[in-house]
Structures are given as structure tokens and as C-alpha cells.
Input
Amino acid sequence: MIFAHLPKKIAFIRLRNTLGLLVLLALWIMPFEAYAQESYAFTIARIKYEGGGDWYGDPESLPELLSFVRKETLLDVAPREEVVELSSDNLFSYPYVYLTGHGNVRWSSSEALRLRRYLENGGFLHIDDNYGLDAYIRRELKKVFPELELVELPFTHDLYSLVFPFPNGLPKVHEHDGKPPQGFALVNEGGRVMVYYTYETDLGDGWEPMSVHEKPESLRKASLQMGTNILVYAMTH
Output
């Protein structure tokens, strides 16, 4: 034994102190281990893209949305999003991916093909125009599904009533060009929305903390509720 050469009493005291230290150390480490090992049913991701657009815009929007979703639904979603590029195999780990920005988006032909494969196999892409994205994202979506057209979803669609009712469609969060907000979609042959494109609304601004954009609480709540509908749709269709 490690203390065999010591008098029994001293050996016992030292052994007891050593064990106590180990117990204290274990208690100190356990919360960190528990946090590191905490798991969730699924995680969402934000798409990082080339072209110069600010893919990282509204950095607190998704954590705020995810916090609201965790409180208001039974979805066991991780409280923070990951960042993923279309060229990464990790893309297929996320059932919902989000894309936003103000400017240019550019996907290579291989990225467009991978995104198509992701969407055809059950993935869901939410595009939120942060203002200035429209012309570029329409061009890039044609690379992914040249045979499909973006169609405006009727207000009777599940997306507008799945959890919270939006009988008049999307909330108008940001002024942009003063046009009414619109929700466009790419829909597969079975009727499932694969891509949902929120235009002239800027939901991400509404999701961010009130101190960032100073939106009325009622409008922020509506934005979070609509975001919840979108995420629940992605996970149930």
C-alpha cells in the first residue's frame, strides 16, 4: 500500500485527507462535466456563406428564439445554434438551418447540389431577408431547384397556425421598402415546404433583445411566436 511504511495512525489520517480531497475535487468538477455532457434532442444551425453578405447578422436572434421555443413548446432544442457551411457533412446533422444577411450570397455548384440533397432528404431552410438579400437569394435558389418557383403561401397554410395563429400572415417587423410582409416557399411534390423565405418583415430583428432594435414588446412577441411556428413546422413535417 502507498502508506504501508507509515505508522498506522498517520497513514489513516493521510488516507482520510486524501480521500476528502478527492471527494471535494469530484464535487467541484461534476457541474462542469454535467454541463459538458448535457444533450438535447436536436440542434439548429446558421449557414455561413460566401459572396460578401453578413451571414452573421443579428447574432442574438437565434438564441432568443430558441429560449422562447424551449419555454413555449415541448421541443428539446439546444439553446444555441451551430454555424455550418454547405460544404460540410455536418449540414445533414441539423433538421433546420437558417440564413440571413443584407447582401450578396453565392453558392458553388457543389454547394447547391449538397443543399438540394439536404432538402430532398427532409431538411428545412429558413431564409430571413435582413434587407438587400432578395435578388441574390432568388438567383442562388435557382441553382438548387431550377425546376421550382417560389410561391407565396396562403394565410391558411399550417405555418400560420401550427402553434400560434397568424390569420393575416407574417408580422411586419422592419419597415424595409414599406411593402407588406410575404412568406414564399419552395414546395416538393408531396406538398412539404422545404424552403421558407420571409421577405419584407425581418423576423431576426424581432427576435433580438428589445434593447437592440427597440421594437414594441407586442411586435417582438409576435416575431418569436411566428419563429416558433416555423421551427415546429420544420420538426413535424
